[in-house]
Write a structure and sequence with these properties.
Length: about 500
C-alpha cells in the first residue's frame, strides 16, 4: 500500500508533486476553506474567482486541478469538494481524501491539508484519522497479478499536514491511528482479492499467521487432525470434500491487566462451490469472497495489536474449502459440533454457519464479555439491504447499540435485523438437535442468525452479515475501489477501542 505519514509544514509550505486542499459549496460560488485560501494567496491566485470561472461547485469529491509550478513547493494544486459546509461529516472527509488520492495516482507524492473548520462534531484527531483512512484506501490497488507497468499506480507516498486552524499534535495522533486502521483494511482487501488457488485453507492459515506475528499477536493453528480430535465436526464436515484440509486459526491480543475480554469470529470459506448442493456458474463466480469475514477479523486483529488497547481480544478464524467430491459431506448427513450439538445438513451450500457454529461454541466456553462474528453468510442479506449496508443481529441491545455507533463513526453503514423467537421452529430437525436451513425464501438472514445464536450459550453476541458489502464490482469513486472492500474492519477496530475505554 501507499505510505501515509504526518509532516510538520503547514499547507502553504508543502513540497512535492501535488497538494490537496478543500472547498465547500457556497450560496453563489464555491468557498475555499481557510487553508485553501492561504495556499491560493501564496500561489498568487484569486482562488474563488478561478474556481468560479472553471464552473466548479465544491460538490463532494469534485476536483479542480490547478497547475502552480514555480509559485509553491508543489507543481499541482488539487481543490477537493466537501459539499455543503453544514453537512460535512468525518465520512465526507474520508471520501474527499479518497477522491484526492485517486486523482493523484499518476504523481509520486501527494500532500493533503487536514482542515479544522468542518465536521465540527468531531475533533482534530478524528478528522485527521478520517483523512488518513480515505487517502490510503483511495490509493489502494491490488496489483499482485498485473504485468504491465501502466496498470500500476505511480503514487508512492502521501503526507498529511495539519491545517492552520488545527492542533498539530492531535492531527498527528489521528494520522497514526488512521494509518494503522487503513493498513488493516488494505490487508483485508488483499486477502479477499487473492484468487482461490492462492488461499486454500493451509496457505491462507500461513499467511494469517505471518501477518499476525508481524503485528505481535500470539497464534495457534489447529490442523485437520487436531480439529477432529477436539470435536470441531462442522469445520471438518464442510472441509472434507477438498484435498486442501481445513484449519482453525486462533489469534490473541493480551496486554496484561486487561479491562475485559472480547472475541471476534470470522467465517473463512476460501472458495464456496456450494458443495454437492452445487451453485450455478454465475452464483459461483465471486465465491473467492466467501472468506471475507475471516479476512476482516484477521485484519482487525493486526490493527488492534498495533494500537494496543488495554483489553484482551481473541480472534477465531475457521477455514475450509467447500467442494463437491466423493468425500464431500452430503445433504442428510448429521454433524456433531464442538460442544456436542448435532445438526442435520439439509443443504451443503449453507456451510458458513456450520463452521461458525464450531468457532462460536469454542469461543463461548472462555466466557468473554462479548462475541462478535462476521460472515458473508446469506444472499438474503443482499435482497434485504443491498450491497452497501451490512446486516447486524443481536438480542443484546447494549452490544447492538455499541456496534452500530462504531459503524456510524467508521463510515460503514449497518442496519439491525430482528431475531424473532417464533422463527426458531424452522430449525427443528426430526433426527438431530437442529437443521441448518429453514423454509426456502423466508427470512434467510434471520434464520441463519437464529441458528448461530444456538451456539453462543449465555454470552452477549452479535452477528454481522456482510454478504453484499464485502465486495463491489463498481467502486464508489472515493475510497472504495473495485473488489474487496474491507468491510467491517474499521467498525471492529473502533468498537474494540471503545470497549477498552469503557
Amino acid at each position: 500500500m501507499v505510505t501515509i505519514s504526518y509532516a510538520k509544514p503547514r499547507p502553504a509550505k508543502a513540497k512535492g508533486d501535488a497538494l490537496a486542499v478543500f472547498a465547500v459549496t457556497g450560496d453563489h460560488r464555491p468557498r475555499a476553506l481557510r487553508d485553501a485560501a492561504a495556499v491560493g494567496a501564496a500561489a498568487e491566485l484569486d482562488l474563488p474567482a478561478v474556481l468560479d470561472d472553471l464552473g466548479y461547485h465544491g460538490d463532494l469529491g469534485e476536483i479542480a486541478r490547478l497547475p502552480v509550478g514555480g509559485k509553491l513547493g508543489v507543481d499541482l494544486l488539487l481543490v477537493v469538494g466537501l459539499g455543503q459546509a453544514e453537512a460535512v461529516t468525518t465520512d465526507s472527509l474520508r471520501k474527499a481524501a479518497g477522491a484526492a488520492a485517486r486523482a493523484a495516482q499518476r504523481t509520486a507524492a501527494l500532500a493533503i491539508a487536514v482542515p479544522g473548520e468542518v465536521a465540527t462534531e468531531a475533533d482534530d484527531a478524528d478528522r485527521a484519522q478520517a483523512v488518513a483512512e480515505g487517502a490510503s484506501l483511495g490509493a489502494y490497488a491490488f496489483t499482485t497479478y498485473r504485468t504491465k507497468a501502466d496498470d500500476v499506480p505511480d503514487l508512492a507516498g502521501i503526507e498529511l499536514l495539519a491545517g492552520d486552524d488545527t492542533d498539530a499534535k492531535a492531527v498527528q495522533r489521528g494520522v497514526e491511528t488512521g494509518t494503522v486502521t487503513a493498513r488493516a483494511v488494505g490487508l483485508c482487501r488483499d486477502l479477499v482479492n487473492e484468487p482461490p488457488h492462492a488461499k486454500r485453507p493451509p496457505e491462507l492459515a500461513e499467511r494469517i499467521v505471518t501477518a499476525a506475528k508481524d503485528a505481535g499477536l500470539k497464534t495457534t493453528v489447529r490442523d485437520e487432525k487436531a480439529l477432529a480430535k477436539d470435536g470441531f465436526g462442522g469445520i471438518i464436515g464442510v472441509g472434507q470434500g477438498s484435498q486442501a484440509p481445513p484449519r482453525l486459526v486462533e489469534l490473541t491480543h493480551d496486554p496484561g491487566r486487561a479491562s475485559g475480554h472480547v472475541t471476534l469470529v470470522g467465517k473463512g470459506i476460501t472458495f464456496d462451490s456450494g458443495g454437492l448442493s452445487l451453485k450455478t456458474s454465475q452464483g459461483m463466480t465471486w465465491m473467492k469472497v466467501d472468506m471475507a469475514g475471516a479476512a476482516s477479523v484477521t485484519a482487525a486483529m493486526t490493527a488492534i495489536a498495533t494500537l494496543n488497547p488495554r483489553i484482551k481480544v481473541t480472534g477465531l478464524v475457521p477455514l475450509a474449502e467447500n467442494l463437491p467430491s466423493a468425500t464431500a459431506y452430503r445433504p442428510s448427513d448429521v454433524l456433531t459440533h464442538y460442544g456436542g450439538t448435532t445438526v442435520e445438513v439439509m443443504n451443503t451450500d449453507a456451510e458458513g454457519r456450520l463452521v461458525l457454529a464450531d468457532a462460536l461454541a469454542y469461543a463461548a466456553q472462555a466466557k468473554p464479555d462479548a462475541i462478535v462474528d462476521v460472515a458473508t453468510l446469506t444472499g438474503a442479506q443482499i435482497t434485504a439491504l443491498g450491497k452497501k449496508i451490512s446486516a447486524l443481529m443481536s438480542v443484546d441491545d447494549g452490544l447492538a447499540h455499541a456496534l452500530s455507533a462504531a459503524a456510524d463513526a467508521a463510515g460503514e453503514p449497518t442496519w439491525r435485523l430482528p431475531l424473532p423467537g417464533e422463527y426458531r421452529e424452522q430449525l427443528k430437525s426430526n433426527v438431530a438437535d437442529l437443521k441448518n436451513i429453514g423454509k426456502a425464501g423466508e427470512a434467510g438472514s434471520v434464520i441463519a442468525g437464529l441458528f448461530l445464536e444456538e451456539f453462543v450459550g449465555d454470552r452477549p453476541w452479535a452477528h454481522f452479515d456482510v454478504a453484499g458489502p464485502a465486495w463491489t464490482d463498481e467502486g464508489d469513486g472515493f475510497y472504495t475501489t473495485k473488489g474487496g472492500t474491507g468491510v467491517p474492519v474499521r467498525t471492529l477496530v473502533r468498537w474494540v477501542l471503545d470497549c477498552a475505554e469503557r
